[in-house]
Amino acid sequence: MSISRIFETTKRSLLTQQSAINATANNIANVNTEGYTRRRIDLSRLSLGFNGMDSEATMRVRNRFLENQLWYEKQELGKNSMNEMLFQQIEGILGEPSDSGLSNIMTEFWNSWTNLASNPESDSARTLVKDKGVLLGNTFNRLDKNLKNLQLQTGQEIQQKVNEINGIVNQIKGINKQIRAQRSNDLLDRQDMLINQLASKIDIQVNESNNGVVTIVAGGNILISGSYSNQLHVKTSQATNGVFHIEIEMTNGNKKANITSGELGGLLEVHNDHVAGYIDKLNTMAISLKDVVNNIHSSGYNLDGVTGIDFFNDNISGAGDFAVSDEIIFDPSLVATSSTVDTPGDGSIAQLVADLQNSDTTNGTTLSDFYNSLVTELGNKVQEAQFVRENQERIVEQLNNQKAAVSGVSLDEEMTNLIQYERAYQAAARMISTVDDLMDTVLRMV
User: Fold this and answer.
1) What range defines the domain where residue 30 resides?
2) Do residues 379 and 283 both lie within one domain?
3) CB-CB contact of 84 with 330 (8 Å)
4) Distance between CA atoms of 199 and 197, rounded to whole angstroms?
5) Among 150, 297, 305, 312, which residue's CB has the most CB atoms within a 10 Å radius?
6) 161 within a domain of the structure (yes/no)
7) How many other CB atoms sit within 10 Å of the CB of residue 185?
8) Torsion of the alpha carbons at 164, 168, 174 and 175, rounded to the nearest 10
């Protein structure tokens, strides 16, 4: 081998080891940098030119299968975390069991009628019935108002999440353009971090081309494809009784986006299904209670022989406007107790109202059982959401650890590699020194 060839080979080795040292030093410097993916030099892809090492030889160490699994599990974690938080808020609104809960207020209402049946000529017993009816109406009103406020707040949170998603989409679109112009490992790291953020907010499918440009599909629609991007927007419609329904559509084409996971999916599910469902059930209870009590009360007589009076307002639409009738509010003596006129000691009507507590009046069951079923169902949802969320956290943590084992920086490993590359660099440098001495000896001999 000629001396010039030896010099060329040795120079190539120096440049190779120098690039490996630089990559290793960069790994060590970014050991605590969030989203950084470990680099390594792929010797098989090295190409030398006037500018030294080819940037294509610096590879990010990653496992795409793990990344895809992590994105999917983060979608589920985002949804379950949101569900748990919102179910707990609904549970707090109902406030069961407590003295101010609807269950206890209904019990007090029925007990006041039992007391009146035992004392049908008592004015104070009639006033107590009226007061407990007013308290019951206020409780229905409060629960309805608080649930509707929660739905309103959830709707605002949905709009905020959509804005965040659109912002992330725009950033990824910009990175796609930059990567097409000049591929950069730092840009790819930034892209991965943004996809991680997006995965926690919405269910996505990600396809990455060989040059690093990504295509992202969400809800059956393309969000990002190369330099193209679409946006989400919120479409709100109002149903009866002040309940709202929200759908997510694509800005381009107005196609519905079927969002079922991520934080946005959890918000939509609770907003459209669960909160609206609990409001509907309270409305069912309120209307049923009004109907059965008024049906009995209007057939009875008070102490003055007045009949045909409704105890509750007859034109209520649900829990939101549930109230004792104005006639009873202004004159509690109109509360009926007897089934026949001029029988002041007869408390049969009051007893019939009290007996409604144990009658199947609402969807084939008692009012109390209907409401207790609602509360039990909600409690089960809270526990289930908490269990699933904790399980998802463990899955995501495990996947993060596996990803870190592949893509994360290990100082021990990097220091070992650094020593290896430095020794190789020193060996190449010594080779040049040896050849230089050899040439000097040859020249002296001439």
Assistant:
1) 3-61+411-445
2) yes
3) no
4) 6
5) 297
6) yes
7) 17
8) 160
